[in-house]
Amino acid sequence: MKRGSRVSYLEELKKILSPERVSTNEVILDQHSKDESYHRPSLPDAVVFPISAEEVSKVMNIAEKFKIPIVPFGLGTSLEGHVIPYNGGITVDFSLMDTIIEVFPTDFLVKVQPGVTRSKLNQELKKHGLFFSVDPGADATLGGMAATNASGTTSVRYGIMRDQVRDMEVVLADGTIMHTGNLAAKSSSGYNLNGLFVGSEGTLGCFTELTLRVYGIPELIVAGRASFETVGQAVDAVVSILSAGIQVARIELVDQQSIAQVNVYSGTDYLEVPTLFLEFHGNEAGLMQDMEFAKEILADNKCSEFKFEKDSQSRNQLWEARHNLAYAVMRAHPGKKMMVTDVCLPISELANGIESAKEAMARYELPGGIVGHVGDGNYHALLMLDVNDEEEMKRAESFNSHIVEFALSKGGTCTGEHGVGIGKMKYQSLEHGNSLHIMKALKKTLDPHNILNPGKIFNMN
Amino acid sequence: MKRGSRVSYLEELKKILSPERVSTNEVILDQHSKDESYHRPSLPDAVVFPISAEEVSKVMNIAEKFKIPIVPFGLGTSLEGHVIPYNGGITVDFSLMDTIIEVFPTDFLVKVQPGVTRSKLNQELKKHGLFFSVDPGADATLGGMAATNASGTTSVRYGIMRDQVRDMEVVLADGTIMHTGNLAAKSSSGYNLNGLFVGSEGTLGCFTELTLRVYGIPELIVAGRASFETVGQAVDAVVSILSAGIQVARIELVDQQSIAQVNVYSGTDYLEVPTLFLEFHGNEAGLMQDMEFAKEILADNKCSEFKFEKDSQSRNQLWEARHNLAYAVMRAHPGKKMMVTDVCLPISELANGIESAKEAMARYELPGGIVGHVGDGNYHALLMLDVNDEEEMKRAESFNSHIVEFALSKGGTCTGEHGVGIGKMKYQSLEHGNSLHIMKALKKTLDPHNILNPGKIFNMN
After folding, report:
1. Does residue B351 share a domain with residue B263?
2. Chain A hits for B424, Cβ within 8 Å
3. Per residue in B23-67, pLDDT tens?
4. Residue in A239, A243, A289 nearest the CB of B285
5. A448 lies in some domain
6. Same-domain check for residues A344 and A315
7. Of A283, A423, B291, B306, which has the most beta carbons under 10 Å away?
8. Residue B427: its chain A contacts at CB < 8 A?
9. What's the CA gap between B91 and B461, in Å, rounded?
10. Which residue in A178, A198, A437 is closest to B192 by CB distance?
11. A384 and A317: one domain?
């Protein structure tokens, strides 16, 4: 872009936002040049901090006029380079739009601005006996979670981000402010825009308000840890528990390598063997019956030890340790960057998938751990990489490809919850076949000048 | 259309399908001229009976070439004129594509052709200890249920049709055969095409295969009937039960007028007062605790009588009676046609909505009953109308408008589960505002010549 036009659009931005909410400060630009992944950073030309949908709409009009990219930004916790502005342009930071607008307890709904984090939302909801279910490891913003269709440990019971979005206010590329849904629990009226915009990774519009489904805090919550000799036995136990119709709220695999990291980082003394972290939600009688049944099934599947975490303190510690796992791994590898694979398979293929990943990990000489939301058939291999070591990066990419190709050959997906960003672009054609053309046609219809997070999910040229 | 071109495309159809699967027989055309609603019938020019996606693709190519409408047809149980070919053209009847392709018990999935009915599917699934949850009153085809995003009595617990669709094979307007999803329990890869095509009412493509989520038959199922003096009390009880976090599997309102029809048609002797039909699914201990709690709440909400239906025979009778209600009402009004309203409201507005509907029903002098999937905030007023009585039809339309406008003013939707068809087209602009333009743009992208079920959901001119 010519220097002159950059000056002009910055001037225009400063006119519509107050000048202190349009930044070209180097530290600010640097903060918005990266996410939590191994993907190469790249600076935006400017960062704006809008406080309303109307302001976002005006920013969008300027971007359309000057044909410059718009990249929405929550907290930068994405894992596939989603928020990295590889084509420069304007990064729209939603941190000033962080108001919880209203809680509707009877309707089990809450209306929020996109910059609200899930932990802030849950603090507020607790006062009403409610909680928001989706919990990726990071304390991400709800706008970002909707953009990537995030999920996490509880989706086996409560569903993924897309299942929680009842309505969104969205600003389109041409500045139109529109709504994607309504407040009713279901609707057959017109096309499902909620579903289309959730998971669109900033490529179809910017979210400026979300109405989300919330749940009552269950009467009783009990968590536990089940230890196994092998990962295969642990996964077999998961399949048995699900087949028995036991309603687990969480069922997470943490392998031996990962448990060791947890113990170091979180100060726990968990047995360092392949482990399932489980949680049950329900009324007291039902939960106790489910727990007893689950214990029998675990024992039948060669579970060597089962430990309850009955009090809320050790339960919280368990899930905090699980959520902090990625940070634990990062801390243990200073100077390195994280690559997390993210395939999701039909549950019947999960054990084979993980076994194949373990073999490939050894073959490619990549030390790392495997964790997963195994109730959904979703697992992650966590690798810490030296991004300057080209040969190592090549091996890691080959390993990731191996995992993805295995998953796709079994009817799975290259990304269960992290999204495509730039990291999974190369698998889109293999995964979607000719439906990829349809996705591109939809993108072109909604963003004809390709200003919205260009070069993410797929290239339009 | 000129007679000559009709002869030509019929010849082409007969070449690609065998001639006996291309019909212009008057009885066949008449069968495909209507649905179960009050909407005016209209004949197609021809009905074809394909047996594969490839054949549907070839039919689509002919339709594109001659610019003639394509209307997909399951069993004709739609309630808003969806399958009525107002612009003539080719009706694609899927009754020969009725194979249950494969059940995947471990993955809780089943792959079916679109002409399979929900009752046929459930017969097969029972052998595996599984069931398919979505149950509109009619024994509709699964293709049709996906087209309208159907739901029914169990969505309060298991979700709507869109929640069950994991993948579909779809034939687009240009004959492309593509897939909308995969077999994994969740995915963040690319745009959500499953969600977009479910509920598209034949306006974006024809479904030729569906992979659907199924559930394990619960350990215990108990049903019951709760009687109240007023509909308002019954609805208050529903709100209390949901707020208490009791996991009902079904919670249906049947008003006094409707219960009377049920008794006549189904030979039951249910108390003729506003009634809730309830069902609980779970493990034995949990279900018993939930039931006891529910009974307390019902009593607190002035429930005058609560009757269990413990054995499976009286339980089945209860739900059969509920499902046959629309037919009961039809039977009681020979020569008349049915109009069923279908709004869905935030649950906090449901009691007001129903009260307002009851008042309007009296004001417009329209006798009828009210039933509803009240756990979702969805209710129906069932009216039997003399379609030749213009004045009565006008009053009925005004009544429907009153109900819809009330629902929309409270953040609800004009159709919770029946779909738009032609009956709800006039409310699309009021409900969707400027997002209606986006829906039309998506339609134009996927069906540029407007051959797919034209004149449904919205007009493209």
Report:
1. no
2. 189
3. 999 999 999 999 999 999 999 999 999 999 999 999 999 999 999
4. A289
5. no
6. no
7. A423
8. 189
9. 22
10. A198
11. no
